[in-house]
Amino acid sequence: MARAYEMGSRTAAMQRTRESILDAAEELFEPAWYDEVTLADVARRADVSQQTIVNHFGSKTELYLAGLAERFVPRVLALRAAAQPGDVGSVVDAVLNDYEHTGDGTIRTLALAGRMPELAGIAEGGRAAHAAFVEQNLGPLVPERRGLGRVQRLRLLAVALDVRTWHQLRREHGLGIRDTRAHLVTMVEALLAG
Prior knowledge:
Order of helices and strands: HHHHHHHHH
Radius of gyration: 20 Å
Number of strands: 0
Helix content: over 70%
Oligomer: single chain
Number of domains: 2
């Protein structure tokens, strides 16, 4: 019985260490570029050795990918869960809330995907998830009309609500959240109206 308790304690300690490493990585990677953060930085923040990080994750890239999969993606899904299918305002609000929390990091990840093949799959998965979100939440409002087809209209809606559109409005043009929301709603409603 003591052996089982010892193994359970060891497993729990390993899980706590892993979570501590992920916490540290998230704190460091969120405001910075991938190449600005070293394993030594993460080790210091987590109060572990670099070898401990390697033992748990294998490499800096694997740590980064684990952080995206286990922390970043669930946060995005939670933020977007507030969207009400068919309600343009709530869909725009959910996307805007997501980007206000994760947009800058997403822009950095997309920029890195062109230089890091291991991130290409993450970027593609994000695009597919965004397209599915748009179809699920705005698809019922897309009219079947001649001219611009349903697929093209959904694609344009995904572009209108893309993180790069948010980035251009918020960061490049310096619009506030209220004006950014108004621009996004205008684009979405225009596309839905045909």
